[in-house]
Amino acid sequence: MTIVPRFLLPFILAGALCSCQTSNRLLHAGKVPLSPFIEHAHVMTPARDRVPFNLTWRNFNRDAQWRLMKKTDIYIAPVTLRYLRPVKQKLVKKEIQKGLVKRNETGVARQLRAKFANAFIHSPSPRYRLAMKPGPNSVTLELAIVELNPTSAKGNAVKTAAKFIVGPLAGLGGIFTKGNIAIEGKVRNSATGELIFQFADNEADKMTFYSARDFKAYGHATVAMDEWAAQFEEFTRTMPDHRVHESKFFTLSPW
């Protein structure tokens, strides 16, 4: 009988789980309540055959879509924190109170806007050119961060040490150290103000055996923002029958 080394178990488990799209979705962070930022909340639904966000809504009015087809630019508005909920993770809340974790909501908001902008700047074939201000030929992307729970670096340090002592099962304690970031977005016709598309999604820290991001308050949030920006940009430039794939719930990268 072949004995599998303990340190390889997380990687074998991750490989098995990643082979199934359904498992990938089930192990992702769940939906969070919609904020008042979202309009038509009662008709928001998943559209996973098109885009992997938790909930979406699209304006299928023929005239609105015709006006949209003529747009060539996209303006990304400053990200709002008006609807941001208080930190809810008990462990990291205590660390904030003790000064062990510094909150940086405004910095993350600026970073989110920059990442969405960079996705269009560096796209190989962008549907829209990035505009510095809204205009008659642009759509406007409005973004809101509604949840931002930092990762507990101290808790993850204890968890990581335990993995080397008692094995991978110690990683299950990560439920108490994980952070999350939830965003909502709306696309408007800049000229008419009519709502074209909106979405909402939530991402928690990815499953890892070891990652430097586990020891940074917003390290995993940065990864989530990169993925959202890439997914949204891909969505804007692809045909209706194209599926934008979900990101993986785990990572083997240490950085």
Architecture overview:
The protein is an alpha/beta fold. The protein contains seven helices and six strands; from the N terminus they run ααβαβααββαββα. The protein has helices at 9-18, 21-26, 62-69, 90-97, 105-121, 153-166, 219-237; strands spanning 55-58, 73-76, 129-131, 138-149, 180-189, 195-204. Strands 1-6-5-4-2-3 form a six-stranded mixed β-sheet, with helices on one face. The two termini are 35 Å apart.
Proportion of residues in helical segments: 25-40%
Order of strands across the main sheet: 1-6-5-4-2-3
Mean pLDDT: 81
Order of helices and strands: HHEHEHHEEHEEH
Q: What share of residues are in beta strands?
A: 15-25%
Total DSSP helices: 7
Low-confidence stretches: 6-14, 16-24, 157-173
The tally of beta strands, per DSSP, is: 6
Whole-angstrom Rg = 20 Å
Shape estimate: globular
Structural class: alpha/beta
Quick overview:
This protein is of the alpha/beta class. The chain contains seven helices and six strands, in the order ααβαβααββαββα. The chain has a six-stranded mixed sheet with strand order 1-6-5-4-2-3, with helices on one face.
